[in-house]
Amino acid sequence: QLRLVESGGGLVQPGGSLTLSCAANGFTFDALTIAWFRQAPGKEREGVSRISSITGTTNYADSVAGRFTATRGSAQNMAYLHMTGLKPEDTGIYYCAAGPPRPYDPLPPESAYEYWGQGTQVTVVS
Q: What is the DSSP letter of 65?
């Protein structure tokens, strides 16, 4: 079965750090764009980052730029989201997604992605 599995979420204090992992089961990320989305309570899901499969360029939402770093793993079925300087407004369920290349779209919408994980909860609270 082709699926993504996220892990690494948890409870952290403001200013803290977390690294989320995304494992692809049954396929690899080789030719796919990898994205991270998040959904805060009562809000719509929003794009956080995207790694282009063609250029390797990584794009970020303004709200996380400079604090979050998205990477592909050395293993071709792994991706990561390293989050630093966490704020209470970063609280939410974080999802990884993968889909075909969209080189001209810095942060493609949800509809661009074929594969999704089940999400991992990140809670930032004092």
A: T
Render the burial of 90-118: b for 16+ CB within 10 Å, e for the rest. bbbbbbbbbbeebeeeebbeeebbebbbe
Q: Pull the structure tokens for residue 33.
A: 């764009």
19: DSSP letter: E
- Per-residue tokens: 71: 């990477």
Cα 40 from Cα 99, distance rounded (Å): 23
Instruction: Return the closest-CA partner of residue 68 out of 113, 34, 17, 119.
Output: 17
The identity of residue 112, as a single letter, is A
Cross-strand bridge partners of residue 10: 122
- Tell me the residue type at 2: L
Q: Where do we find the tokens 């089940």?
A: 118
Give pLDDT tens digits for 6-55. 999 999 999 999 999 999 998 888 889 999 999 999 999 999 999 988 77
Cα 6 to Cα 67: distance, rounded to the nearest angstrom? 20
Query: Reduced to 3 DSSP states, what percent helix, strand and coil does the chain have, rounded to the nearest 5?
Result: 5, 45, 50
